[in-house]
From TrEMBL:
Pfam families: DEAD, Helicase_C. It comes from the Bacteria. PANTHER family: DEAD-BOX ATP-DEPENDENT RNA HELICASE 47, MITOCHONDRIAL, DEAD-BOX ATP-DEPENDENT RNA HELICASE CSHA. Residues 427-492 are annotated as: Disordered. This is DEAD/DEAH box helicase. Residues 476-492 have a biased composition (Basic residues). Residues 2-30 form the DEAD-box RNA helicase Q domain. Residues 33-203 form the Helicase ATP-binding domain. The lineage of its organism: Bacteria, Bacillati, Bacillota, Bacilli, Bacillales. It is an enzyme of class 3 (hydrolase). Its EC number is 3.6.4.-. Residues 214-375 form the Helicase C-terminal domain.
Amino acid sequence: MTTFSELSISQPIMKSLEKMGFEEATPIQAETIPLAMEGNDVIGQAQTGTGKTAAFGIPMIEKIDTKQRKIQGLVVAPTRELAIQVAEEIHRLGKIKGVRTLPVYGGQHMERQIRALKDGPHIVVATPGRLLDHLRRRTIRTDSVHTAVLDEADEMLNMGFIDDIRDILKNIPEDRQTLLFSATMPKEIRDIATNLMKNPKEVKVKTKEMTVENIDQSFIEVPDKYKFDTLTNHLDINAPQLAIVFSRTKKRVDEIAEGLQARGFSAEGIHGDLTQGKRMSVLNKFKNGRVEVLVATDVAARGLDISGVTHVYNFDIPQDPESYVHRIGRTGRAGRTGEAILFITPREIGHLHLIEKVTKSKIKRMVPPTNQEARRGQQQIAVEKLTKTIEKDDLKSYQETASEILQDHDSVSVIAAALKLLTKERRDTPVSISSAQPISVKRSGGRDNRKSGNKKFYGKRGQGGRNQGGRNQSGRNRKGNFQKRRNNRPNS
Ligand SMILES: Nc1ncnc2c1ncn2[C@@H]1O[C@H](COP(=O)(O)OP(=O)(O)OP(=O)(O)O)[C@@H](O)[C@H]1O
Ligand SMILES: [Mg+2]
């Protein structure tokens, strides 16, 4: 256990940490903060929800000279929502010191953003596309930037973003300090990373598994057309506080969200085709519990820290094991427990084994919940509602009518009717989700699946010849596991 005071953190930041309720440093913080404060470039890898934001945030804030009204720290993150969240956390950490932090992302009014930039933030947290826009317009000056951070570094150095990142880094003085953080860091990406850095210190918090222990992981083998009923049954039985359902396409996200609403759940979808205003309002409703089920594409897979997420459903199998790690990492954060359920079609079973192998975790088989169990689950919730109402003890005005009913009917029938009124017969509302192509199953031995005619999941990676095809040095054929990232990337 390491306390923050052992890490030579200055008083103003110590005060912020105290205010935030952080008592001890997490392992990634304990290991990387001293290295970064000594000025080293750092690659930090640690499980989801273990405080990587503060691990790079604290040393960056330490180096800010608040008297200079110039951008000195730059953080790049893959999605708008994450940029906002990271900016908020850095703001909390740096507030007492007087550090000004600004999130900058696409979908935000350009003029307003330029005005805010003129106001002299010390740290900018940006998505790559919008940041490049500003660099080209010279509305962001980087000559005083001494610290550059790539949050979700492996994602930022992957197909969809790598060119943007190279362009961004070219604009930052060479004597900068570069910090890269993520829960996952495939070897080939680590190699790209080290080329962009100066003698980076690599810190990997040692754990048996890549996923956090306190997430209970299981899978249900289910054909695509039964996934939706399986989902609603599971939701009825488990009554999650907040749940995230990940699906592969925007279309399916919309359909699942609408289907859930039709069956009486409070659900909303989030994906890159929505306006920024809509994305924010959906996420805010989810954060404050007005929406209980968030249906999302991978736009919500990385970094988002929403307390109260008890369940993550992989309605569709993620495109690679890393994505699985990030998706399920939306629950079980900061020591809390969570449950992750993966729906897998019989054809995709091969992917399950790959996920288990890469993440070194065991995903246990779960029998699909039956309609009867779901009905019982729903009734259980109705019973809880009734019990709570009884406990409140303000039923006087109903008692006379209640006694009258009991003169004509037996008590079991009356309560059964009340339960029926309090529950929704979900199956009365049929929902069909347009089918998704199963993702290509990786074959053992690294066989080139393209030859078997399955082109869909190779995209530019397979065609571009940018040293990304074939096996990597660890012998793992990654080709089948990457979709067209470039086309898939969230709007930034
Ligand atoms: N030392 C600490 N003590 C208590 N809580 C902490 C500490 N450090 C961070 N947290 C809290 O833990 C939560 C997770 O932190 P954070 O979002 O930085 O995780 P992460 O490692 O970046 O996860 P991901 O890989 O999903 O991005 C946040 O709510 C954060 O405020
Ligand atoms: Mg993070």
